[in-house]
Amino acid sequence: MYKKMNGSNLTIATIVLFTLFSLGGSAALLSQTQPTWQPISGNEHNMIAMGNVYLNNVLVSGSDYWMGTYGPDGVFSDCRSANLVAANGAYYTTIRGNTNGQAIKFVLLNTRTLRSFVTTESLTFLNDDLQATCNLHFSGEGSNLSITSPNGGEVWRRGESRNITWTATNVPGYLTIELLHNGELAGTIVSSFPVTDGRLPWIVGRLFNGTFVTGGNLKIRIRSQAIPVMANTDLTKTDPAGKTH
Question: For the chain, how many structural domains are there in total?
Answer without folding.
Answer: 2
